[in-house]
Amino acid sequence: MEPTRxxxxxxxxxxxxxxxxxxxxxxPADLREVICGAGDDDEALPMQRTLDELNRVGVALHRLHxxxxxxxxxxxxxxxxxxxxxxPETERCEACQGEAAQPAPAARLGRSLN
Length: 114
Prior knowledge:
Layout: H1 3-26, H2 31-36, H3 41-66, H4 81-86, H5 94-101, H6 105-113
């Protein structure tokens, strides 16, 4: 990928990281409280999502640093630039993401029987 595009995507990732941190700071619970179990159950799920998103952005920044960014973690193919621009922390190409989103065969079978 071209250095100018990588720089743009790095800026998008850093902005996303800053946005997440700003949201966390404005939230009703402290992440440490949720992790330690002191937060309300109603706050735990959104905080877990925040932690998951922080992790995805961190992984994307690391992959960018080591030269693996923009490659699907499942198949190794390039991730479309439009996909990276929309969700710079994405880890999979569209095909692999579609496969990952499909329910397991047993789950599909169970639904058709109900």
